[in-house]
């Protein structure tokens, strides 16, 4: 497999394994293991690679991507060779998306899933990779219709199982079409994607996402399909905890604090997975890992052990809705130790976070850890944090405060907390 030229590895690139992206702390290498699954041995291996070739910082993103940070440019070819040898690379070549489909971390295993979402996701991924001209960030959600609903994850195209023999297609703007037999879904997805790619060519790059098309253009794409009302909404799932699998077994979903770990943290997790005979480890878009194929009793023991390792197991943990970049000292652009500060702030704001407040802590304006707005964005500067309400790092701050000042004004009865409580919680 030939690697792309180094000049293609630039800031703003949608990164993968073969084409990393330059960030403030070196190359960011995004891994796409087949099916989003790892063995315990592979998990330990990834941790070792992160330490050997990068700065030891590992992330799991809000799309379930495993990312190694601070990879040295000269180490990248060796890293790629080792990942290929370990069977850990499954990404499309070319300028389009490296991986199109986002599915449940328990796809194909989840109790209550209406059909084999893992099989459907693989078929849709294959069909989508056959369509040329898709923008790099184009994405598809494949939802098996179980309790781990993916409704809150944005997508250009959405497939949702509504029966064991029927899926429906969702386009932006609340447009739904179907029902469709699952066997026909890949061909229909390919038709919709090809229609979008053709539209993008006509508009000469002015349209990069499905949501940028108006309703008339979207309906024209789906002209052969039957419009239908939106399927019934489902409650937001608990993203962590013990989940039932379809064969009477159980999985433990656990989040990394702020979606991050250092490389040394992966070895004990892999050790636990070995000890408890975990069948496979899945990457979760709730910024964590799913440990699959366990008895109920073993799942309970593993959950306790993972919590002792510092992972998040409670759906009410205040760190779950908080995004924070790697910060200092990992990133040389960072003006603050964002992870430590985010831990402090998530304690102060715990009740508001449990009620849906979103908090983002960024070491610089680049905002690696979150695209778009949060209810409260904190941008580190030399003497403290810019405080931005209902915005992102490029929006106007209401104040610039040292961390102690900020903590004080976020405490009950203080002014910034009162403003946050008065504002409608912003969802991404
Ligand atoms: S956002 Fe954070 S991790 Fe990204 S470049 Fe800035 S300081 Fe570094």
What features would you highlight for this structure?
five-stranded antiparallel beta sheet; six-stranded mixed beta sheet; Sulfite Reductase Hemoprotein, domain 2; globular; Alpha-Beta Plaits; alpha+beta; 11 helices; Sulfite Reductase Hemoprotein, domain 1; 4 domains; binds iron/sulfur cluster; 428 residues; 21 strands
Describe what you observe in this structure:
The chain is 28% helix and 23% strand. It has 4 domains: 6-85, 2-Layer Sandwich (Alpha-Beta Plaits), CATH 3.30.70; 101-228, 2-Layer Sandwich (Sulfite Reductase Hemoprotein, domain 1), CATH 3.30.413; 241-308, Sulfite Reductase Hemoprotein,Domain 2 (Sulfite Reductase Hemoprotein, domain 2), CATH 3.90.480.10; 322-422, Sulfite Reductase Hemoprotein, domain 1. Helix 1 (40-53) packs antiparallel against helix 6 (263-275) and helix 3 (117-129) runs parallel beside helix 4 (185-202). The strands form 4 sheets. The protein has a 6-stranded mixed sheet, covered by helices on one side. The relative contact order is 0.10. It is α+β, with helices and mostly antiparallel strands. The protein starts with 20 loop residues before the first strand and ends in a 6-residue tail after the last helix. The protein contains 11 helices and 21 strands. The longest helix has 18 residues, at 185-202. The chain has helices at residues 40-53, 76-85, 117-129, 185-202, 215-221, 263-275, 296-308, 338-348, 350-354, 403-409, 415-422; strands spanning 21-23, 26-31, 37-38, 57-60, 66-71, 101-103, 140-143, 157-163, 166-171, 175-180, 227-228, 241-244, 250-255, 260-262, 280-284, 288-294, 322-324, 359-362, 374-381, 384-391, 399-401. Iron/sulfur cluster is lined by residues 23-25, 325-327, 331, 333-334, 362-364, 366-368.
């Amino acid at each position: 497999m030939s690697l792309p030229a180094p000049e293609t590895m630039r800031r703003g690139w949608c990164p993968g394994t073969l084409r990393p992206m330059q960030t403030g702390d070196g190359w960011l290498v995004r891994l796409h293991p087949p099916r989003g699954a790892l063995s315990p041995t592979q998990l330990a291996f990834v941790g070792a690679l992160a330490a050997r070739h990068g700065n030891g910082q590992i992330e799991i993103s809000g799309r379930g991507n495993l990312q190694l940070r601070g990879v040295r440019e000269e180490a990248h070819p060796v890293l790629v060779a080792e990942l290929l040898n370990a069977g850990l690379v499954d990404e499309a070549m070319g300028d389009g998306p490296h991986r199109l489909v986002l599915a449940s971390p328990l796809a194909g295993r989840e109790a209550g899933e209406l059909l084999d979402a893992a099989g459907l996701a693989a078929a849709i991924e294959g069909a989508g990779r056959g369509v040329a001209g898709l923008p790099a960030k184009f994405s598809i959600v494949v939802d098996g219709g179980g309790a781990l609903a993916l409704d809150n994850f944005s997508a250009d195209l959405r497939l949702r199982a509504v029966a064991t023999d029927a899926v429906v297609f969702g386009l932006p703007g609340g447009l739904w079409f179907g029902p469709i037999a699952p066997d026909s879904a890949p061909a229909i997805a390919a038709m919709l994607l090809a229609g979008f790619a053709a539209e993008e060519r006509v508009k000469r790059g002015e349209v990069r996402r499905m949501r940028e098309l108006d309703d008339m253009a979207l309906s024209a794409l789906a002209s052969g399909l039957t419009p239908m009302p939106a399927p019934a909404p489902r409650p937001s799932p608990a993203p962590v905890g013990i989940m039932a699998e379809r064969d009477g077994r159980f999985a433990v979903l656990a989040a990394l604090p702020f979606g991050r770990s250092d490389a040394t943290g992966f070895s004990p997790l892999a050790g636990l997975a070995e000890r408890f005979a975990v069948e496979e480890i899945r990457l979760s878009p709730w910024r964590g890992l799913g440990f699959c194929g366990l008895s109920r009793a073993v799942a309970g023991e593993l959950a306790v052990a993972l919590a002792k390792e510092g992972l998040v197991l409670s759906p009410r943990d205040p760190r779950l809705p908080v995004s924070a970049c790697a910060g200092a000292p990992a990133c040389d652009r960072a003006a603050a130790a964002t992870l430590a500060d985010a831990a402090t702030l998530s304690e102060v704001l715990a009740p508001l976070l449990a009620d849906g407040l979103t908090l983002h802590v960024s070491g610089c304006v680049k905002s690696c850890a979150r695209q778009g707005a949060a209810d409260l964005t904190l941008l580190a500067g030399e003497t403290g944090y810019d405080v931005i309400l209902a915005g992102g790092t490029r929006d106007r701050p209401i104040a610039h405060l040292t961390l102690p000042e900020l903590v004080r004004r976020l405490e009950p009865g203080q002014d910034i907390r009162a403003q946050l409580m008065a504002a409608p919680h912003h969802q991404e």
